[in-house]
C-alpha cells in the first residue's frame, strides 16, 4: 500500500512545509536517506503552546505536539523526495522535550511521533530513537522532533 493511500485511510492530511526559523533548510536528501531539520509543532505557522512540559504544558498535550512535529517532518521529507510515496520508511527519530525540573517523561512524549510514524509506515516505521529532555527549545516550543527517512 502506498504512503499516500495509508495517509488517506488514517484521515491525515500533511501540512505545508514549515518555514525555517533560522539559517537552514527543512530537509536534505543524501545517500538514499532524507534528514529533516528539527521540526516544531507549527500549525498554520504558529505554535499551539509554549512552555515547559511538566509545568505549563501537560505530557498529554506535548505527546500530541510531538505527533504534529512528526507530520511536519514527513511533509518536509516528501517535499525533498518529490512526493510522499517516494519515502520507504523511517530510520531514526530524535526528540527533544523542553522539560520542567524533575520531569522525566520524555519517552512518553516522543511516543507521539513514533506512534504516528508507525501507523503510517507499518513495519517500515520501526526506528531507532532518542528522547532527550532539554532546558530550552526554539521560540519556547515544548517539543522538537527530527526524523531520518529512507528513500524508496
TrEMBL record:
CDD domains, A to Z: YjgF_YER057c_UK114_like_1 (cd02199)
Pfam families per the UniProt record, alphabetical: YjgF_endoribonc (PF14588)
Coiled-coil region(s): none
Source domain of life: Bacteria
InterPro entries: Endoribo_LPSP/chorism_mut-like (IPR013813), RutC-like_sf (IPR035959)
Stretches assigned to the Endoribonuclease L-PSP/chorismate mutase-like domain: 5-141
PANTHER family: ENDORIBONUCLEASE L-PSP_CHORISMATE MUTASE-LIKE DOMAIN-CONTAINING PROTEIN, ENDORIBONUCLEASE-RELATED
Protein known as: RidA family protein
UniProt organism field: Microbacterium sufflavum
